[in-house]
Amino acid sequence: MSVSLTITDLVARDPRGRILLSVDALSCEPGQAIGIRGPSGAGKSTLLMAIAGILAGAEGQVKWGDVDILTAGQSARTAFRASNIGLIFQDFLLFEELSPAANAAIAALFLPAKQRRGLRQRANEQLLRLNIPQDARTVASFSGGERQRVAIARALANDPAILLADEPTASLDRDTANRVADDLTRLARAGNKTLITVSHDHDLLSRMDRVLTLTDGRITNDSRQERAGV
Questions:
Q1: CB 163 within 8 A of CB 196
Q2: pTM to 2 decimal places
């Protein structure tokens, strides 16, 4: 499944009322790869959190298909994310004491028993595609690149229509970052998934269909580009 994104009159403020983010209108076709760039403090991660429906106090509309994730109740937002969104963070957020398979399939713990086997199978399939060792080691011994690949497998395990990534290559060396960027974009395109990533990494951004530039909380440029490294 693929879903479109439509943002209208999105505003986010800090506790003092200062505007952190203001997006009058933005739309994204299903299956597009979009990069978000800009200086620190420009509102990039704020926009990503609003798109994911995890930004408290955001106003306006953020619609995935027919679902407005800002106005939906908390349980509805949680259910939508669980079914449709895979989140990837720069600091991986893995459980050090668990194996890669257990980390990638962690969401199975929150599913009905009859759905757990399928998710674990998909998690293992993604780990295999990403060349992660299938042994009993914990991720404590893994390199940064291996950890990020486990995090990508975890995000893909539930076969989400949407992938949201916050600086997924920031803590990696250049060669590893390029491999992770290739993995992420290849897997997203193979599944016709919408990929939205915040990044300062020009090599990752060069792989996107569109790149948004944020300045002082506003989109100041929206460029379409030829994809590199695909």
A1: yes
A2: 0.88
Cβ 147 vs Cβ 92: under 8 Å? yes
Closest CA to 88 of 29, 142, 156, 30: 156
User: Are 145 and 179 a contacting pair, CB within 8 Å?
Assistant: yes
Instruction: Flag whether pLDDT at 109 surpasses 90.
Output: no
In this structure, are residues 207 and 33 in contact, taking their beta carbons and an 8 Å threshold? yes
The closest of 31, 29, 37 to 6, measured between CA atoms, is 29
Yes or no: say if 161 and 84 are a contact pair by the CB < 8 Å rule. yes
Rounded-to-integer distance, Cα 46 and Cα 67, Å: 20
Reduced to 3 states (helix: H, G, I; strand: E, B; else coil), residue 118 is helix
Banded pLDDT at 215 (limits 50, 70, 90): very high
Quote the strand ranges of the chain, DSSP E.
Answer: 5-13, 19-28, 33-37, 59-64, 67-68, 85-89, 162-166, 194-198, 210-215, 218-224
- Give residue-wise pLDDT tens across range 151-197: 999 998 888 999 999 999 887 889 888 988 998 898 888 889 999 99
Let me know the angle formed at the C-alpha of 89 by 31 and 119, rounded to the nearest 5 degrees.
Answer: 65
CA atoms within 13 A on the CB side of 58: 28
Angle between helices 174-190 and 144-156 in degrees, nearest 10: 10
pLDDT single digits (tens) 11-60 = 999 889 999 999 999 999 988 999 999 999 999 999 999 999 998 889 99
User: Which residues lie closer than 8 Å to 66 by C-beta, 6 or more apart?
Assistant: none
